[in-house]
Amino acid sequence: MLSGIDALRRASGKTRPAVILLSTRNGTPDSLGLSSVVDAVVAKPITPERLQPVIDRLVGRG
User: Fold this and answer.
1) What integer pLDDT is reported at residue 14 of this predicted model?
2) Buried residues in 20-51 as b, exposed as e (16+ CB within 10 A)
3) pTM reported for the whole predicted model
């Protein structure tokens, strides 16, 4: 699935669709080696207080 998203992004030259990785560990897309496909990482526990600011930031950039 990630390779398909990466191909779509490369073909369009855009960073859509936005991808949020829900993870069991902390990190950034760069530190996890996923910077070309993942826009943000939210570590567990996944709560509205942790997830909503990430969604707002991604929606605001597009």
Assistant:
1) 80
2) bbeeeeeeebeeeebeebbbbbbeeeeeeeee
3) 0.74
